[in-house]
Amino acid sequence: MARKLFCEINPFFYQISMKKEHLKRHLKDLCSRDRFAREHQAEPLPNTVKGHSSILVRRLHGVDLRLQENKVTNIRLACEKINGLLIRPGETFSLWKTVGSTTARKGYKEGLVISSGKVGSGIGGGLCQMGNMIHWLVLNSPLTVTELHHHSDALFPDERRRVPFGTGTSVCYNHIDYRFRNDSDQTVQLLTWIDGDSLCGELRSEKPFPNRYRLVEEDHHFSREGDVWYRNSKVYRIVIDRETGEEIAKELILDNHSKVMYDPALIPKEQIRDADSQ
Questions:
Q1: Hey, what long-range contacts does 19-28 have (CB within 8 A, 24 or more apart)?
Q2: What are residue 112's DSSP bridge partners?
Q3: Do the beta carbons of residue 41 and residue 189 sit within 8 Å?
């Protein structure tokens, strides 16, 4: 039997381990030269760089619907902290610096969390969806991602997916963060809100950027290696000159080879590729 980690012995030791990680992050930020965005402005900046919306409650295979419904409360609270945030040139956006800790005292509920490739629950769970949306907005801009933690496994089958697989991010207060830096010459702004059953967001700027961006997923398929199934694809970011419409760059940003953690019977048959044909 494998020896348990200190944090796995019991919940008390787990909390000690988490407090240690929180302290390490605080100390690291104190010693860094990052300037974190903190100023909010109610009035939106005039130019929309990118907008996006995603369904809040998805009926995920094997997941308690209550956790999905509680997630709506958690995301609503996070929206209030993020909406209107200005990120000036040279400043860094940090999800957790902006949102803060997610505790029951602040109104957060038990939502879906993913840890070590396993689905569970925890207070404040579900904010990965917020990180996913902000990352998607940033990918469609010249802003610089400085911290990103990919979900390494394919945890759920698709349901109403609108973006390429694998372009999300894991977050966990406060040591697993999502961050980007504004290396442009103008201020940008994040708008986040809930409209009906959707999480909505916009990245705005003072004026249009010289280029626009398009994300494409290619060679998407499932493959079996021994007894393990994998989801595979490549995600590219295409850079387009706004004035001429000319494609000026195509960069590989993600090479997916993700272990399928759900029932393989749910894999669409037409998306399976034999190992011999690869």
A1: 21/174, 21/175, 22/173, 22/174, 22/175, 24/175, 25/174, 25/175, 25/177, 26/174
A2: 121
A3: yes
| pLDDT for res 10 | 53
* Residue whose C-alpha is closest to residue 56's, from 133, 150, 166: 133
Instruction: Tell me which residues of the chain have a pLDDT lower than 70.
Output: 1-14, 60-62, 115-117, 159-161, 275-278
Give, as one character, the DSSP assignment of residue 6: G
Interatomic CA distance for residues 228 and 137, integer angstroms = 33
Return the pLDDT at 117. Answer: 63
CA distances from 91 to 35, 109, 117, 178 (A): 5, 31, 32, 14
Contacts made by residues 244-247, CB under 8 angstroms, sequence distance 24+? none
Contact between residue 72 and residue 193 where contact means Cβ atoms under 8 Å apart: no
pLDDT at 95: 98
Domain spans, the chain: 15-208
Backbone angles phi, psi at 49, to 5 degrees: -80, -50
Q: Amino acid letter at 60? A: L
